[in-house]
Amino acid sequence: MQRYATEFSKKSRTFAPDMETKIETTNTGGKVLAYDGEELVGRLEFSFDGNVMSIDHTYAFNKGTGIGGVLVSAANDYAINKGLRVLPVCSFASAWYQRHQQFADILYR
């Protein structure tokens, strides 16, 4: 498991405590898991179609605490590191990208 602390996340998180994220992938997709200590507090599911990563579902088990943003930000970092385009199918992810226009260049339209 890796500690999630990119420069972007350090500046943008206001509610979520220091969390750890873990990314698990298969040939067809994967998930981002968010942990607060040992407790699983959120999950994001994504799928691949060529070089496009679709963010399909975001689940934050404690609403309003910033967990969803941590999940999408971790998925975004993964996409950037792998050279993928992002298709935010999930309404939460879509809203996140609308608020973070600095990542508009990686969106698949």
Jot down its keywords.
109 residues; alpha+beta; 6-stranded mixed β-sheet; globular
How would you characterize this protein structure?
It is a single chain. By secondary structure, the protein is an alpha+beta fold. 28% of the residues lie in helices and 37% in strands. The model is unreliable at 1-14 (pLDDT under 50).
What layout of secondary structure does this protein have?
Blueprint: E1 2-3, H1 7-12, E2 20-25, E3 29-36, E4 39-49, E5 52-60, H2 67-82, E6 85-88, H3 91-99
The rough form would be described as globular
Q: How large is the radius of gyration?
A: 13 Å
**Secondary-structure element string:** EHEEEEHEH
Number of helix segments? 3
Which spans have pLDDT < 50 for at least 5 consecutive residues? 1-14
Helical content class: 25-40%
- The number of distinct β-strands equals 6
Which percent range describes the beta-strand content?
Answer: 35-45%
Biggest sheet, in brief? 6 strands, mixed
